[in-house]
Amino acid sequence: MVPLLRELGRGAEADVLIESEERAEKAGKERHRRYEREEINCAAVADKQKPVQASSRKIGRNEPCPCGSGKKYKKCCGK
Predict the structure, then answer these.
(1) 61 near 78, Cβ under 8 Å?
(2) By the 8 A CB rule, do 73 and 59 touch?
(3) 62-72 pLDDT, tens digit each
(4) Which residue has the higher pLDDT, 79 or 28?
(5) How far from 30 is each of 24, 65, 72, CA to CA, in Å?
(6) SS3 letters for the chain?
(7) What pLDDT, on the 0 to 100 scale, is given for residue 54?
(8) What is the pLDDT of residues 21-65, one digit of tens each?
(9) CA atoms within 13 A of residue 21's CA, in its CB half-sphere
């Protein structure tokens, strides 16, 4: 396209077209770099996170409530 514009004597338009293509290419490279940084950060965060495990055994519905109320779990905190 640029050679055709120059051939038709429209050099200024050819220069504008070249500049816009260069800006678009530069923006694409920056977007790619930003994506790679975010991907690396996400991987680092995922490595730090560990699965959460229950700290105690499961409380049965008819067992006394661990809050100390004296009620059965199903009538107190197990609603």
Answers:
(1) yes
(2) yes
(3) 888 888 888 88
(4) 28
(5) 10, 57, 61
(6) CHHHHHHCCCHHHHHHHHHHHHHHHHHHHHHHHHHHHHHHHHHHHHHHCCCCCCCCCCCCCCCECCCCCCCEHHHCCCC
(7) 65
(8) 999 999 988 888 888 777 766 666 666 666 666 667 788 888 888
(9) 8
Token couple for 11: 């050099």
Q: How far is it, in rounded angstroms, from Cα 55 to Cα 41?
A: 30
The answer for 57, left when phi > 0, alpha when psi is -120 to 50, beta otherwise, is beta
Residue 28, number of CB atoms within 10 A of its CB? 10
Roughly how many angstroms between the first and final C-alpha of the chain, as a whole number?
Answer: 72
HSE-up of residue 30 (Cα within 13 Å, Cβ side): 6
**pTM for the whole thing?**
0.40
Amino acid identity, position 43: A
